[in-house]
Prior knowledge:
Mean pLDDT: 91
Strand order of the largest sheet: 1-2-4-6
Structural class: mainly beta
Radius of gyration: 13 Å
Number of helices: 0
Largest sheet: 4 strands, parallel
Shape: globular
Number of strands: 6
Distance between the termini: 30 Å
Order of helices and strands: EEEEEE
Amino acid sequence: KIDEIEDKSFSNLGLLKYLDLSINNLSNFSLSCFIGLYRLELLNLSHNSIELINRNLFKELHLLISLDLSFNKIKKVEDNSFISLFCLKSLHVNSNQIRHLISNNNTLNG
């Protein structure tokens, strides 16, 4: 099982469309771990130990359509964490410990 992803681990995989990192021991990510995945459409991070979603974690993933964060330990999703995911159609966050996901204007902003 994977415990850690190093900075820019995927930087040479610019054509990659699907990345499945589910069922590992991932808990923290560097803000540059997904840099270079410009064509990524599906990212599965389910069944890990993620506790925090940083607002800049997914900033390079403009073509992402599906993001699965289910079955983690997420307690906090920072504001605007999904703002750069212009094509996102499917977001799975079930079976986490999230207490607040709605902004002040009652919409899911970024």
